[in-house]
Amino acid sequence: MSRIQATFAALAAQGKKALIPFITAGDPAPELTVPLMHALVAGGANILELGVPFSDPMAEGPVIQRACERALKFNVGMNDVLGYVRTFRQTDATTPVVLMGYANPIERMGQQNFISAAREAGVDGTIVVDYPPEECEEFCTMMHTAGLDAIFLLAPTSTPERIMQVAKVGSGFSYYVSLKGVTGAANIDIEQVSARIAAIREHVKLPIGVGFGIRDAATAKAIGAVADAVVIGSRIIQEIESSPPQHAAAAVQAFVAGIRQALDELPQHR
């Protein structure tokens, strides 16, 4: 059982929902990435999503695009990101870490080299936005062999065929994009999300996390009522942007703690 699977199993036994915050590695400065990771855990995060800086992050809205630009000014690349995870693992051996990014940095390393390096660093899984599940069965097989989870995005427009393919090759959890558009957009239709999750659950037996557009405790709580996990990214990046660098970790910890409290107020289902 992977660390991600074990985390969801433990939360399910407690009747709790997973909180998965996102930050971009290297933003606002490389030396703050590991402290920010620990601050997220201290605030109540269950799984960390660590963005790999990329010059053309097609799924990201302006907030995370800016985070990528700041990190790239420090020339933060995949090897640096793996180094942050390795350092994080020196004092946290249990919190799963998922790398979210794009195919190019992985292809530059070579898939098998990347998987070996990720496993050695302590990575638990990947979300690769531009790896369609229909075209990366070999990658998923190599990931599973290494004990890592390959996590895929599903969207409001995903066809039954795409959902079934994710059910076939994905592991860890499935990430449902709550709306059409990029990260940080607003106006989530909770009823529509609930209906789509029900349709996805007919085929996908993995836990389902929901992200894109979750900006506050109330929305997180509403999503948590219908999903297994809540993913928050842009709003956390905004906390980092609006704080002096030396106060960024405390700011994100406080914000995440508020979301955690809201999720823990949900009725427990076991």
Description:
With 270 residues, the protein is of the alpha/beta class. The chain has a single domain, classed as Aldolase class I (TIM Barrel). The chain contains twelve helices and nine strands. It has helices at residues 3-14, 33-43, 62-73, 78-89, 103-109, 111-121, 137-145, 160-169, 190-201, 217-224, 234-241, 248-264; strands at residues 18-24, 48-51, 97-101, 125-128, 149-151, 153-154, 174-177, 208-211, 229-232. Strands 5-4-3-2-1-9-8-7-6 form a nine-stranded parallel sheet. The model has no long low-confidence stretch (mean pLDDT 93).
* CATH class bucket: Alpha Beta
How far apart, in Å, are the first and last alpha carbons? 20 Å
CATH architecture: Alpha-Beta Barrel
Q: Within the CATH hierarchy, at the fold level, what is the topology?
A: TIM Barrel
Largest sheet: 9 strands, parallel
Q: Which consecutive residue ranges, at least 5 long each, have pLDDT under 50?
A: none
How much strand?
A: 5-15%
Order of helices and strands: HEHEHHEHHEHEEHEHEHEHH
Question: Overall 3D geometry?
Answer: globular
Instruction: Give the number of DSSP strands.
Output: 9
Give the radius of gyration: 17 Å
What structural category arises from helix and sheet content? Answer: alpha/beta
Biggest β-sheet: strands ordered side by side in the sheet: 5-4-3-2-1-9-8-7-6
Name the CATH superfamily assignment. Aldolase class I
Share in helix: 40-55%
By DSSP (H or I, 4+ residues per run), the number of helices equals 12
Mean of pLDDT: 93
Total domains: 1
What characteristics describe this protein?
270 residues; alpha/beta; TIM Barrel; nine-stranded parallel sheet; 12 helices; globular
